[in-house]
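W.,

You were right to be curious about this one. When I first looked at the sequence I had no strong expectations either way, so I just let the prediction run and decided to look at it fresh. Below is the sequence, 393 residues in total, followed by the output.
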Amino acid sequence: MATILLIVIYIAFIGLGVPDSLIGSAWPAIHTELNISVESVSIVTFLISVCTVLSSMFSTRILNKLGTAKVTAFSTAMTAAALLGYSFAPNFWFMIPLAVVLGLGAGAIDSGLNNYVALHCKASHMNYLHCFYGVGVSLSPYLMSQALSNVGWRGGYRYAFYVQAFIAVLLIISVPLWKKTSSAEGTEEEKEVNLTLMQMAKMPEVRLVWVIMLVTNAIEYACGVWGSTYLVEVKGFDTEHGALALTIYYVGMSIGRFVSGLLADRIGTWKRIGIGTVILAPAVAVMLLPLHGAVSVIGLFFIGLGNGSIYPNMIHLTPHNFGKEVSQSIMGSQIAFAYIGVMAAPPTVSLISGLCGIKVYPVLLAVLYVTMVIALKCFINRLKKQGKYSANV
């Protein structure tokens, strides 16, 4: 039963990824049809992220009260309903409340499932879990690219809804499986100590991990939301090929997480984080160079490949770095700050592109990368002083 439950959790993470890449791949077509500015995408992504942050911050209380299974099933159903709503959106303002629903659903799923896997599963499973997230975010731009060639962006949202609705039904059916698995293993879902935000903010290690999570996700989402638009506006791609290029980026992310999972029993978690950081350096450098659009697509692929493994491996280390009894609180705060990065990246790119042109977009990626490397170094140094760091963990 434990294996079946793990498969269900993997599928749930496909559902978590499905909505995340749709807006980026569809936006070149959406803003044209609805006659709104390119930069308006930042309003939608900002609202999604704000609500995800709030949901993550309060996740410990909600999960302790209802349990991970029920929260995951209900939240996935919420996101499916929102995707269907987008396909009927008559104007930009109709998208606003749907963004709220998407955000609230995503935060609870992310926090609950990540903590469950970090506590009960090996590092390889955490990487595979986020690889399945990569499957979800890779599937969406592919579906959207097919829809843009045939039935338009609204059809792409409906295709995504069908996938999400199927996953929601599966999760609802599987709710009893969580209790049966816990009983068979002789364990119950643990009640976590609920730390306040102020309590966590007083811990220097937590503040550093917040920065790391914020920046790695800012890189991910800056590429996911603006990668397609950058290729269309600067490199001369049409909207269909721009969406397809975004699929390649997310495929790179999925491969990075899958390979990290394969290596989990041979290479320590911190070493895998280091490898991802090293891969990122030349990938970001390629984006900075005035090369052919195809080279930029390769750069995006390797950004996904390198950055993709950092987030799940940092998540997996949470109980080890901070202790199991407070892992859910810190997990929720980490994911909240990850989504602050998601929230801040698109409007920052919008602001900079509005002032200087979207050609400076790769410079922002380079600044984010350098910030992450510095924060990682400081975090590791503090763990070493406390005797919590081991390259073989």
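Here's what jumped out at me. The chain has one domain: 2-175+194-386. And, maybe more interesting for your project: The mean pLDDT is 84.

Coffee later to discuss?

I.
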